[in-house]
Amino acid sequence: MQKLSTRHLLGIKDLTPDDIELIMATAREFKEVINRPIKKVPSLRDVTIANVFFENSTRTRLSFELAEKRLSADTINFSASGSSVKKGETLLDTVNNILAMKVDMIVMRHASPGAPHFLSKHISANIVNAGDGTHEHPTQALLDSFSMREKLGTDLAGKKIAIIGDILHSRVALSNIFALRKQGAEVTLCGPSTLIPRYVNELGVKVSHNVKETLAWCDVANVLRIQLERQQIKYFPTLREYSLYFGINKKMLDDLNKEIIIMHPGPINRGVELTSDAADSHHSIILDQVENGVAVRMAVLYLLAGQN
Ligand code: NCD
Question: Residue 198 annotated as binding?
């Protein structure tokens, strides 16, 4: 069996291009499995996985849980609200208590960037980062790449991908930038200058502040939510003004003389970054992304379990 170069999935930054290819190929096989009448395989029958969520989640959490069940793993779920974290327990103590119950793998979402990297230095279980603050969200980037490849019918070398919206606060943006550049895609970030971090030039991407020009340039537009919950200061005057300058509607897509693909990791703020007629149009593959998320997470869990 081909192996990943790592025991954990902490971020896309640490993956090699070969790791990404292996995950894509494995996910294609699992996508076939989850579309069969019997959607389950016994691959992780002896593996116990804890989903440890210190931050809110709908899609990511359900998707991991379903992926684990489809692989026949035993699962337990932990969410910080209602737990002893409120009583002052440290992250390491919380996780060590979970591991004492003989857990093999931890899927963790945490508000602090680097939390899964810290854990990986102290515990022996495999760790999957399900989002660490504004840092990385590797499985989202992998499912995004999988969905782009599926729709474009090729790999992503030379493809033009735009990431539009709140880049500064988005772990989806950073993981996508790493993933897309490792696959040879060209990347343009588009948004108000206050929401584009200064270090991005070092990541080999272009920056635009003109959404119409960006749409005319790209093959795929990955549209991100304005993360108001992470904004302590004002980055733009009003949401209405944001949507006027950076929001995307169906007419803008129909006026392009070509077909482009619209993606969004969810949750959508309808009427802010995307109007409903754009989000629900034939351009959009938003629900395909959700379906592919299960297959990609099955691939990641299966390959990491094989590292032990
Ligand atoms: C994203 C997240 O939580 O990072 N959503 C997701 O995982 N599908 C993006 C967001 O919250 O806007």
Answer: no
pTM exceeds 0.90:
yes
Please report, for the chain, the start and end positions of each structural domain, with discontinuous segments joined by +. 12-136+290-305, 138-289
Average pLDDT (253-258) is: 96
Q: Please, what is the end-to-end C-alpha distance for the chain in angstroms?
A: 13
φ/ψ of residue 147, rounded to 5: -70, -40
* pLDDT tens-place string over residues 28-39: 999 999 999 999
Q: How many whole angstroms from 1 Cα to the centroid of ligand 1? A: 32
CATH architecture for segment(s) 138-289: 3-Layer(aba) Sandwich (3.40)
Structural fold of domain 12-136+290-305: Rossmann fold (3.40.50)
**213-233, pLDDT tens digit by residue?**
999 999 999 999 999 888 888
Does the pLDDT of residue 85 top 90, yes or no? no
Give the DSSP per-residue string, 19-45: HHHHHHHHHHHHHHHHTSSS----TTT
Which of ligand 1's atoms lies nearest the C-alpha of 137? 4
**Dist. CA 133 → ligand 1 center (Å):** 10
Distance CA 71, CA 51 (A): 15
